Amino acid sequence: MVDYQHSPVTVSGKRAVVIGGTSGIGQAIALGFAEEGADVIATSRSEEKVNETAAEIEDRGVETARVTCDVTDAGSLEAVRETAVDELGGVDVVVASQGAISRESVQDISDEDWDFVTDVALDGVRRVTQAFAPAMDEGGSIINISSLTARLSMANLPAYTAAKGGVEAFTRASAKELSPDIRVNAIAPGFVITPQNAETYAEGTEKRERIDERTPLGRVAEREEIVGAAIYLGSDASSFVTGEIVTIDGGFADSAF
Ligand SMILES: NC(=O)c1ccc[n+]([C@@H]2O[C@H](COP(=O)([O-])OP(=O)(O)OC[C@H]3O[C@@H](n4cnc5c(N)ncnc54)[C@H](O)[C@@H]3O)[C@@H](O)[C@H]2O)c1
């Protein structure tokens, strides 16, 4: 018998915090982690949504805590960290899934709209890392949610595109600095159906047909299809993966026609 053991792809027993974890992709990751046996705090600005998702997490038989946060306020992220340390005993995995978008052209976007998007989507990621890294032990994993738009431009999303490009560069920069104790990676989803955008991507719309036609796998993603990569990056199975961007787009970015 060969003396052989690999780390399984599981976050069972880990303590996770998901910022922007009460809706969309972040909520799917929070619930997916809870299903796997991780203790999870899912947080956003809304107390009502925090309570709803916390109840869903508790239904899965794991620990959680109820706390709101705003990623534009470093102090509120520090409060989430303290809650995680007090209630869960520490933090092993942090997911930054908060989102902000503004649809203006390069020529028209105002300072105010640019700052709103980058404050949440890029500076927010920096603040999440700064708040949680000091509380994470050896083996910690930070997962930033980027977007395909960091690689492939779409019209009228200049601030979002720049922010996501920044998230990927910041992911590599912090992976370098926080090594070897903490790994930092990003997930770059393509088109993902969430309750918020279900109408925009509804079947039968021109937009949806164009995306389906252009995507090798022939469809958009369900938000649950992002969870497996987050579990992998949060688990010890990815112990030698850091500074990496995992694209989940049904093959969109790497296909021509
Ligand atoms: N849905 C897609 O097709 C898609 C594609 C690529 C990337 N993404 C990225 O995935 C992430 C999640 O997006 P989603 O589609 O699930 O959207 P969503 O709107 O459902 O989730 C965003 C979450 O961020 C929270 N949030 C917003 N501003 C915040 C703030 N200031 N402080 C704290 N929380 C805040 C919201 O309350 C919400 O819970 C985002 O980073 C988004 O850019 C989404």
TrEMBL record:
Protein name: Short-chain dehydrogenase/reductase SDR
Residues covered by the Ketoreductase domain: 14-190
Protein source organism: Haloterrigena salina JCM 13891
Record GO biological process: fatty acid elongation
GO molecular function: oxidoreductase activity, acting on the CH-OH group of donors, NAD or NADP as acceptor
Family: Belongs to the short-chain dehydrogenases/reductases (SDR) family.
Superkingdom: Archaea
